Each structure stands twice: as structure tokens, then as C-alpha cells.
Amino acid sequence: MNTIMATVKSCITEEEPSEALDVAADILKKGGLVAFPTETVYGLGGDALNTEASKKIYAAKGRPSDNPLIVHIAKEADLKRLAREIPDAAYRLADVFWPGPLTMIFQKQPAVPDSTTGGLDTVAVRMPSHPVAYELIRRSGILIAAPSANASGRPSPTLAAHVREDLDGRIDMILDGGDCRYGIESTIVDMTGEVPVVLRPGYITKEMLENVIGPVEMDAGVLSDRLHERPKAPGMKYTHYAPKATMYIVEGESPNSVIRCINRMVKERQAAGCRVGVLATRYNALAYEADEVIVIGDKEDTLMISAKLYRCLREFDTKDVDYIYAESFANTGLGTAIMNRLMKAAGHRVIQAPSI
Ligand code: TXA
Ligand code: MG
């Protein structure tokens, strides 16, 4: 298959003509696949109500068929076409956070095919705020099922070039709208129980949700790999976001203890003939004595860290390192989402730096 690459202005409006968007909308209407930018990561879109189209998504990504897709809508009225038993709290969250990086899970309508929901009787719905995503849904008139546009198991794409790396020749079109503002996937909240539960942390934090609807729970699997705490979002159980090298997260009481610990491990690995990388925050970066040091941003600037995380992990793949040591981040606010993705990328390998 020849994948069409097209650049789109990331601030497209309803009135503007855009040939690329119209071509993309047409492909979707005919059951084809289009990768497009959203404010979180690039999505791989297909018609959510078309069984064949959603099957193609799984095939293109090499994704296990029990891992359900998120359906993207452009107007709240479309929620009812997908979901049943929508609680009042969901409308209040939608009022505040849609369009934006929030996905909610509901009981599904019969019209939503099993191939889209991975056989579940629930459906995940989100209204993206990225103008290109919005316009694509609007112009195609289609409810777009879209997982992240990476090959299954790889870090999610935050640039069109990442999508091309993974899916060129396997999908019909890639819309290039530049980089993604948040860089990690949407917050997922299960709205089907008594108390809403965060299944995947993201930019919209538990506290932000609670400010609108009161108590919200955090799924126990979010920062744990313990078997009895298996996450309820099926996709969260797979090895994920993984760079090619083996990665470790290093926690410590102080920056100096972390630096010392990492430098010691780097030396040991190098002595064994390995190439080693460090994922560092800005102020510590110069202190590392590794083969490759990639700076992710200022430790306090969690939006920058989340925006650059996957890009940095992909960059390590081009550096040919055998091991990556990563600093860790505070498990508060957006930090929870960052640590959730880092932990998965590292296969939950965490090292405690000795205190000094
Ligand atoms: O930000 C995002 O959400 C991006 C952009 C493209 O919108 N999409 C995304 O999709 O991250 P994906 O497929 O990579 O991740 C979807 C996650 C998976 O972990 C999946 O298991 C979970 O959502 N999910 C989908 N439907 C579900 C359902 N009915 N119940 C529980 N989890 C569900
Ligand atoms: Mg994904």
C-alpha cells in the first residue's frame, strides 16, 4: 500500500479549504485508515461503526484483538449514538474537559461493533481538542476509532515522522500537523460504576476530576505491576511504550545520590562492553558520564516532560544503546501519568539509589 503523506496546518478552521483533509475524510468514509494529530498523541483513525475498518486498525498496528479502541467524536450529541446509561457526572466532566484529553467509558450501544470494543460491552469515548482531529471528524461525518498510531508495543507517536517509522505502507494516509501538545495519551475514566475510576492517568489529573464531580478512585494497577492489581483498561496490561534498550528507573533521596548511583551502573555496564544512555533532567545532565545523555526538560516542568517523553524514548532507539537509566519524577499531578508511562517503558524495573 502506498501511504499518502500530507502536511496540514495545525490551526485549520471550519471555513478553510484543505485538500488534504478532504482526501483524508474521503478515505475514512470508504473504510480506509488515516493517521492524524491530536493534542495527546497521533491517532490511527478508521470508521468506528464499520467492522472491517476497525479490523484493519488492529492488523496495521499488530494489536491484540482484545484491546479495545477509543472512539473520537466532535459533538456531544454523538455520545448518545455510542453510549447508554450516561451518568450526570459524565456530562459535567464533558462540560469542563471536552474537547480535550479525557476519555470516558460507558455501557455501549448495540450499534458499536465488538471489533471496536475488543468484545467488551463498554465503549471508550473522547472528544479531541486538536483542530485537525476535530475537522477530520466533522468533514468525514464519521465517529473515528483511533488508537495511538504506533506499531503495537512501541512508544506512541508525537510526530508524523514517528507514525511513518512504524506504519508506512500499512495505512492509507498520514496527516502531518506538527507535534502534539501533551505528548502522552488521554486520561481514561471508567464511568460505569458507582464511583468513577481512573484507569489510565493523563494530563487531566484525579484532583482535576474531583474538583468537578467529587470522589474519584485511581485503579490500583496504574503504578503497579502486581498480578492481582491487573489494570482494567485491557491495553494497560501489555508491555508498552518500550524503547529497544533495557530501561531502569532510578529513584533516590537527592539528585546527587541518583547521579552517583547512575554513574556507577553506567561504568559497570561499559566495562562489560555495553553502550549506555541516561534520560536526564536539565540541571543534572552534565553530571552523567554515559555514552548518550538525552535531556527531557526541567524536572518541575511536567508538561514539557510529558510532551517530550516518547520522543526521547524513540531517540534512544537511534542511538544504539543497550541500557537506559532514567531519573524518576514525583508521583503527583501530571507526574503520576509520566511515572505510569515510564514504569511501563522500563517494565517496572526500579532501582533505589543508596543515600549519601
Ligand atoms: O490520547 C488518546 O487517548 C489517544 C489519542 C489518539 O486519542 N488514543 C489512545 O488509544 O491512546 P490507545 O488505543 O492507544 O489506548 C486506548 C486505551 C487502551 O489501554 C484500551 O485498553 C483502553 O483505552 N480502552 C478502550 N476501550 C476501553 C473499554 N471499553 N474499557 C476499558 N478500557 C478501554
Ligand atoms: Mg496506544
The oligomerization state is single chain
CATH class of the largest domain: Alpha Beta
Rg, alpha carbons: 20 Å
- Measured as a percent range, the helix fraction is 25-40%
* End-to-end distance: 57 Å
Decide which structural class fits the backbone. Answer: alpha/beta
- What is the number of strand segments? 17
Count of helix runs: 11
Model regions low in confidence, pLDDT < 50 over at least 5 residues: none
The CATH architecture term of the largest domain is Alpha-Beta Complex
CATH superfamily of the largest domain: DHBP synthase
What's the number of domains?
Answer: 2
Average pLDDT across residues?
94
* SSE pattern: EHEEHEHEHEHEHEHEEEHEEHEEHEHE
Shape: globular
Bound molecules: threonylcarbamoyladenylate, magnesium ion
| CATH fold node name of the largest domain | DHBP synthase
Proportion of residues in β-strands? 15-25%
What would you say this structure looks like, in words?
This protein is an alpha/beta fold. It folds into 2 domains: 215 residues, DHBP synthase; 107 residues, Rossmann fold (3-Layer(aba) Sandwich), CATH 3.40.50.11030. The chain is built from 11 helices and 17 strands. The strands form 2 sheets. Strands 1, 2, 3, 4, 5, 6, 7, 8, 9, 10, 11 and 12 form a 12-stranded mixed beta sheet that branches. Strand 2 and strand 3 form a beta hairpin. Helix 1 crosses helix 6 and helix 10 packs parallel to helix 11. It is globular and about 60 Å long. The model has no long low-confidence stretch (mean pLDDT 94). The structure holds threonylcarbamoyladenylate and magnesium ion.
